[in-house]
Amino acid sequence: MSEVNFPLLSFIILLPLLGAIVTGMSRTAAAAKVSALTFAGLELLLTLFVVQLFDSSIGDFQLVEKFDWIPFLNVEYLVGVDGISVLFLPLSALLTTIAILASWNSINHNPRFHFSLLLALQGVTVGVFSALDMMLFFLFWELTLPPLFFLIGLWGIGSQRRGAAIKYTLFMIAGGGPLLLAIIILAVDHATQMGGSIPQDLTFSLPVLLQTTLPADKQTLVFLLLLFGFAFKAPLVPLHTWLPTAAMEGPTHIVAILTGLKLGVYGILRFAMPLAPAAAVEFSWILSVFGAATLIYGALIALQQTNLRRLLAYASVSHVGLVVVGIASLNMQGVQGAIFQLLNFTLVASSLMLIAGFIQHRLGSTDTIHLGGVAKVMPKLTCFYFLFALASFGVPGTSGFPAELLLIVGALTSHGFFGTAALAGAILGAAYMLSFTRNAFFGPIIHTTVNQVQDLRPRELVLLCAPALLILLFGFFPNSILNINQVASEAWLARLALQVP
Prior knowledge:
mainly alpha, 72% helix
């Protein structure tokens, strides 16, 4: 691990939290908006600086900061990044900035509290991606719940928004129990193997735990506990029902964050697989089965949807299944494709949900019965929608193509059946997106309200340009992503005692 003198990552974690306080204390709603956007913009610049400092030729953790936190339990404040996690920092910061701009004029009730919660959520999310101590990770993981509970419950657009907030929170709390139990088992096992006493010789440090070989029976237990805990937030079928509910009831810019940042899948990649490598290899078929089931189920349900927000929610579930199949393939193509697709979620899935929000704000609905002929009156919005839709099912020239190609090749290389499922999921993805597009954006204008809507405003146009340009950039130059995580992916595979192709 390479440590640094200046606590850059800590500053990046604390800056949005400080911004949340300043924004909450603003005297006017306008001042709160400017404050939130300023802090989010600074956060984006600092996370880009982290990427600039990052050395992709090193597979170990970099920019590491380590301080004693709870000495009695040997819990440390330990943060750092590697090739797997580093790009999630600027993309999550970009998503928060876009969410602030998207909700600029739509939040009339208590805007100071709203934008404060957005910044607080940004800070703890960066903490999730940076934490290298398991207890610190669990703290940040759980701290994502309060902001999302209030953001969905107070500013949701559906009549059942409070119920949706409670449902989301209960699902996440249910997933937190297995995670905490697995973390405790890991710490206690390490102390036992070192011949130490409890609690003095416990350790929750991820780098240390990676060097501690778990017994076979405990590996199985830890892997299944971590997998079950992360499956709630991923989400994997049948633990996915909170996402369609949140998509229909919550504010679209918050749902964009939920669909764009797949913290549960990141947890499987970062913790569940490398901490119990023998069990991960042995039970990779279970992961593949759940991934394939989620992929096909989500796509088939999306194919039947007539509401864009619900369709995008099930599409997000389906794409999660594809990523999990890629992780379970246990080869270089699958792992790099999984990381690439997780980064894609931040750009593609969130942007499509924001466009659904723009339509909802103008027409009061995203159901096809209230649409039809949208392309005639909103050509700019339609162009962006087409780009993001094409990227979502992997058309060449977009960032979705190299990601899905790697995932499908990885799955086919590992097991033909799951590779076939991945191919079927890609075909179904094109089917449900194109079918809805034909019904909602083309054809005659049936409702007079559609004929009166305004196309994208300058602010909306600008905020969609950033992800659109990145989708094209990563589509034509995928090595800009793959080169950053290649060494870390090789180290991840070596941890699972597999030969890298």
